[in-house]
Structure formats: C-alpha cells, structure tokens
Backbone:
C-alpha cells in the first residue's frame, strides 16, 4: 500500500533519488544541450519514482506547481550555468516570495562519447521554504530602508530604482 506524500517524505526521497540518479546512465539525453529538456527529463523521472511509492495530487509542470497540495514546485538547473526557469511574475513576489516552496535539483551533465550515454550527477537537492523564496537583494534593501527609519517614499523610490515591474499605485500599496 502506498503512503501519502508529505513534504518530509518528498525531501527524503529527493536525496535518495539524487544519489541513485547520479549513478544512472541514459542514452536519451546524450548530447542534449537544452537545459530545459534535461530539466523536464529529470522532473518526469522523479515524478515517476514518487508515483511508485506515494499517493499525491500531481500538478502540471507547464501550467502550475508540481505538488499543489504540498505547495512545492520542482526546479532543475545546471551547475555550469545556473538559472531560474521560474522568474518572478510581479514585484509583490520579488518582495514577499513566490507563495510556494521549491525543491531544487542542481546537476552536472556528463556525456560519455564511448557509450553514447549521459549521466546527471546531481550535486545538490535543496528544499527552499516558501517564506525564503523572495529576491534576497530586494528584500535586504527594503529592510535596510526600514532599519534606517526610511519612509514610504523611500521604499517606493527603491522599487523604482530597481526597475521592479510595478505601477505607482501598487508600489504605494506594497510600501504600506
């Protein structure tokens, strides 16, 4: 009988999966340089791994977060060129966070010309709590303004200086 997936089990299984996957060779991703394709491959493989052991509501990797009931989304990035496939949608998310947690896999892809296979050496599997998903530089800047007795206008000016995608009315609401 399958267990119900929890955040605790998700984190534990991510570590086990990372270790196992790091020793697996795969011809399907040999020579693939598109990091989005590699990320999709790894996400789908991890989902398949979890489906064998757990029951959970699966989200859509294209239209939403991967584990909606847990409030967790998977992100996969290369150590050679780390990047976010989940840009902040608005200024509010940059300041207050995404509103969901992230499970991040950081990998190094190694192609073996001799066997024409690739191996994803997963260097890190990291769980980032929802409350820690805001933009560090932006939130640090705003906290420093507040710490130095800055006012609402100072916060709005800071957001404008950082070219946050926010109109003045919304910037004033955020500053409040």
Residues:
């Amino acid at each position: 009988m399958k267990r119900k997936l929890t955040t605790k089990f998700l984190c534990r299984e991510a570590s086990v999966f990372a270790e196992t996957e790091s020793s697996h060779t795969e011809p399907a991703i040999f020579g693939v340089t598109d990091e989005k394709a590699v990320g999709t491959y790894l996400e789908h493989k991890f989902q398949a791994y979890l489906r064998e052991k757990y029951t959970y509501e699966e989200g859509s990797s294209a239209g939403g977060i991967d584990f909606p009931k847990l409030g967790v989304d998977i992100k996969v990035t290369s150590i050679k060129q780390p990047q976010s496939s989940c840009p902040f949608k608005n200024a509010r998310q940059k300041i207050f966070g995404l509103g969901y947690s992230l499970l991040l896999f950081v990998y190094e892809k190694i192609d073996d010309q001799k066997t024409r296979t690739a191996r994803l050496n997963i260097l890190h599997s990291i769980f980032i709590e929802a409350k820690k998903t805001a933009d560090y530089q932006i939130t640090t800047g705003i906290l420093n303004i507040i710490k130095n007795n800055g006012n609402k206008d100072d916060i709005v000016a800071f957001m404008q200086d950082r070219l946050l995608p926010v109109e003045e009315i919304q910037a004033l609401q955020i500053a409040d």
Summary: The chain has a mean pLDDT of 92.
